Amino acid sequence: MGRIISQKNKSKVIRAFRAPSAPVVMSLMALILIIGAPALVSTIDDSHNQDILVTNDLVAADDTGLLDSIYWNPSAPVDTDRTYSALIDGNNVSYALSSVSSKQYVGVYRLYNIDPSVFSSISKLNINTSVELNPASRVELTTDAGATIKMYGFTAIYDANNNLVGYEKDFSSYEKTLISGSNIKSVGILFQILTTGTAPEYAEFEINPEIGITIPYGEIIVGATGVLLIVCAILATPWVGTTGLTIKRRK
Amino acid sequence: MITIDYYGLAAAAMATSFLALLMLSYVRKRTLSVWHALTIGAVAGFAASLAQRYTGLIDWLTLGITGVSTSATLFVVGMGAMCAVMVYNILATRGKTAVR
After folding, report:
1. Cβ separation of B82 and A42 shorter than 8 Å?
2. 3-state secondary structure of B64
3. Residue B76, CA atoms < 13 Å, CB-side half-sphere
4. Nearest to A38 among B60, B69, B86 (CB)
5. Contacts of A154 (CB under 8 A, 6+ apart)
6. Is any Cβ of chain B less than 8 angstroms from the Cβ of A153?
7. From the DSSP assignment, how many helices (H) and strands (E) are in chain B?
8. Which DSSP category does A135 fall into?
9. Model confidence over B72-91: pLDDT tens digits?
10. pTM higher than 0.80, yes or no?
């Protein structure tokens, strides 16, 4: 009698805690892998696993040298004096407008044709300047095919007296993979003025690409997830299960 | 002029298809009307855009499709294999199950 009761209880327990079916487990696992891996990668802060070794000098991508330009605001009158002089000295670049009145029409200071090797293994881009920049300021990569890849995310740095001393940009795992893997022809940096009319008559930028060794956790996680997904796909076929091959024998 | 990123578009389509197939594996109803397919597609597309917003899923898929990163390519191959197996199972079982 006692045995019968215990069996009944056992079957009740089994019914209450019934394991989910294989399709449910498999599809949930696939979902977790697909969404979970990029989510995990996006939360990784590479600044904890990188050593900054050296600050690279800016080098031109070809014989034409480092190039500069200014994008003028579309509202600038036709007769605006658009002449300026730029001086590129090592990692310092400065722009001096010929006419004081034209500073209200400056939109973007641009430095381009930088050799992509300067940015390989980059950890952080440090820019010392007192010019107030817009969040649209960015690093632009030009590929061999002529496509442009834009990377935003300049963060302002202030000193103890709350004065602006510059900006820095940390590169995410995705951006580092993009820089190292894409066929990049040249790199440019665009300094977009905060609001129209706030550009100074003389603007100076010290650009320091900080190079370091970073363990590519992002790529490792994504690659390992890919392998796991292939295993999941094999297990989801009718021929292979977790207990082995399930091929029916012919009589 | 609007520039279309075909690789990004392919990655978005892949993410949406994958999520739609997963949703389909939970649908027990055998006859699937156009309205079911549209609803599943819309919800899957919304889920894919949410995943992109918070995880950058489509960015990694684009890297894999363009062959920029070997790891990302493995990820795309794994996802493609899972999609292919689910489609095969749906066809082989006449819509009964996507994963078995």
Report:
1. no
2. helix
3. 23
4. B60
5. A127, A133, A135, A137, A138, A167, A168, A169
6. no
7. 4, 0
8. T
9. 999 999 999 999 998 888 88
10. no
